Amino acid sequence: MVIAPALKACLLRDLAGFSAELDAYPDEASVWAMPPGVSNSTGTLTLHCCGNMRHFIGAMLGKSGYVRQRDAEFAQRDLPRSELHVLIAVTMDEVAHALDQLDESSLPPVVPTPIGGVQPPMTTWLVHLATHIAYHLGQADIHRRLVTGERRPVGVMGIAPLMGGAHP
Q1: In angstroms, rounded to a whole number, what is the distance separating the alpha carbons of residues 19 and 43?
Q2: Is the pLDDT of residue 163 over 80?
């Protein structure tokens, strides 16, 4: 099985998608706005997805040394987009490094540390991580549309980035 290149392509595309979503807001405050019915802003979703990727891919697979502070991902507010962009770039570097050096033949059969009281198969967990970030990227898109009134997507889920191309 060769999952690392496909996983890397999806995760990097979706992390870049968060940058594109952030750029589509008219100002800093709107990134953190909380309209009725929304439980997380795009700023919070960015912090959460970066923390998740840095923990489970960067630290767990790539041995980056990152120590996650999950509660802070949901507590921090009003960071400037420039700081979020730096965090995304750092996360992308850690994810790329971890997956580039990954020896899939040495992956443990299950996640070494229980998650929510269970230890899922490692390959299932890796697919879950990709769908988890995609889910939150979709939430970020809806948040941006609600806050800005913009109806159009910013085109973050394209196939071209998976094949080495750029976002439209």
Answers
A1: 10
A2: no
Angle formed at CA 133 by CA 32 and CA 94, multiple of 5 degrees: 95
- Domains of the chain: total: 1
165 pLDDT tier (thresholds 50, 70, 90): low
pLDDT surpassing 90 at residue 2: no
Q: Which two tokens stand for residue 90?
A: 């750092």
Distance CA 151, CA 153 (A): 7
Question: How far apart are alpha carbons 8 and 98 in whole angstroms?
Answer: 9
What CATH number should be reported for the domain holding residue 121? 1.20.120.450
Domain assignment of residue 121, given as a range = 4-159
Question: Alpha helices, DSSP H only, in the chain?
Answer: 4-23, 28-31, 42-53, 70-75, 81-100, 122-148
In a domain, 166, yes or no: no
pLDDT of residue 160: 75
One-letter amino acid of 11: L
pTM of the complete model: 0.93
End-to-end Cα distance, the chain:
31
Q: Are 134 and 14 in contact (CB under 8 A)?
A: yes
